[in-house]
Design brief:
Elements: H1 2-23, E1 28-34, H2 41-58, E2 63-69, H3 74-86, E3 91-93, E4 111-114, E5 126-128, H4 133-147, E6 152-157, H5 162-172, E7 178-182, H6 186-196, H7 199-214, H8 221-229, E8 241-244, H9 248-260, E9 269-272, E10 290-294, H10 297-311, H11 317-335, E11 349-352, E12 357-361, E13 364-368, E14 370-375, E15 378-381
Parallel strand pairs: 1-2, 1-3, 3-4, 4-5, 6-7, 6-8, 8-9, 9-10
Antiparallel strand pairs: 10-14, 11-12, 12-13, 14-15
């Protein structure tokens, strides 16, 4: 099975490589700008190792990757990009961080495929290749339709990612009952979720119903009152699902606040953003089931194992993306008869990578993702 999946992914690339010499005898130069020193050195080194794995799979001697160290500095990023352009490079993979792109519009002749997932306010020559909010929300829309979810509330953290999510909501036209911006401070968050879920009113409903029964002639009132005293709240809510655009401890804080207000996953459907199969979620039984869009888990595991066999260490998440991007760019160049120009990123094209299917049109990359649940302490594929 492992061999079969590898064949599926690189079968087309191998075929392309066979015909490459027919079309071009020139070297295909692709730049790679990543942090190879400083605080984020490990991220850059992992990306470089993944790129080398991809190059080995493609096996085309005319494909040359030229790595440069950004030192995670915007000025240095521009400087080394200019150096690459002087070497004849017109396509550069990177940078890793969004703020490293701020000066790159000075090099309008070069197209950058950054590893970030932010697509708003990028320079016109920078294409974000990360798993962005649009790709994730489109996958959530599919899950909504399959499960008849018509009253979803979208919860957005008040962070520097807020505008990105709000923009994606508009572009995808996802069906929502409401959106809600929440404070990431847990002490403030709980009171916000209480208000959203009408917790205090639902709590008073229990007290009011007990008083009503005590003053009634209901022959079963003792049993009913006993049951009510075991409840924390009484009354419905006006949504059937929540979409939480958060990760790690932030996600857990939001979900815990809902549990505090007596809204468990038994009453509504919990959906979140890509969690990269965070195994700590498997231990959070009270949050299960929770659903999320993601890359293909099996392919990620196979890639991680190949990486480990080659380097005796495991890759980071961005390096998985870099592995696919090499094949993706090579495929686009092939489709353009090995001519490297901006047209290859404007034409509508699809490429099946390990992450999933890359789609590009008018300088925007989106991904067709899978959908998973964390349920019974396991990751389960939904589609």
């Amino acid at each position: 099975m492992k061999t079969f999946i590898k064949y599926l992914f690189f079968g087309l690339i191998a075929l392309i490589a066979l015909f490459q010499k027919v079309y071009s005898e020139e070297k295909i130069k692709i730049g790679l700008i990543i942090p190879l020193s400083g605080e984020y050195k490990e991220i850059g080194e992992s990306i470089l190792k993944s790129v080398r794995l991809a190059i080995n799979k493609i096996n085309d001697e005319n494909l040359i990757i030229i790595p440069k160290d950004t030192k995670s500095n915007p000025e240095i990023t521009l400087k080394i990009s200019k150096e690459l352009y002087k070497e004849g490079v017109k396509i550069i993979l990177g940078p890793v961080f969004n703020n490293s792109s701020i000066y790159l519009d000075e090099l309008k002749e070069v197209t950058f495929l950054s590893f970030t997932n932010k697509i708003n306010n990028n320079p016109v020559n920078v294409i974000s290749a990360g798993v962005n909010a649009i790709s994730q929300i489109n996958t959530i829309k599919k899950f909504q339709k399959l499960n008849g979810l018509e009253r979803s509330i979208f919860l957005i953290p008040n962070s520097n990612y807020k505008e990105e999510i709000e923009s994606a909501i508009k572009k995808t036209k996802i069906n929502l009952k409401d959106t809600f911006i929440y404070n990431t401070d847990p002490t403030v968050l709980t009171s916000q979720i209480e208000e959203l879920t009408r917790y205090k009113q639902r709590k008073r409903n229990v007290e009011d119903e007990i008083i009503r029964l005590e003053n009634s002639n209901d022959i079963n009132k003792k049993n009913k009152i006993a049951k009510l005293k075991k409840r924390d709240t009484l009354g419905g809510i006006n949504f059937d699902s929540v979409i939480i655009a958060d990760f790690d401890e932030g996600l857990k804080s939001v979900a815990t606040s809902f549990l505090y207000t007596d809204i468990s996953s038994k009453r509504i459907t919990y959906i979140c953003f890509n969690q990269w199969f965070d195994e700590s979620l498997l231990k959070e039984k009270s949050l299960q089931p929770i659903y999320f869009p993601s890359i293909n888990k099996k392919n990620y595991e196979i890639f991680s194992e190949d990486y480990y066999q080659s380097y005796n260490s495991y890759p980071n998440q961005i390096s998985f993306l870099s592995y696919d991007l090499i094949g993706f760019v090579y495929y686009l160049i092939y489709k353009n008869n090995f001519k490297i120009n901006k047209k290859i990123f404007i034409k509508k094209n699809k490429f099946k990578g390990k992450i999933g299917i890359f789609e590009i049109s008018k300088n925007i990359i989106t991904h067709q993702l899978n959908f998973y649940s964390v349920e019974s302490e396991e990751f389960k594929k939904i589609f």
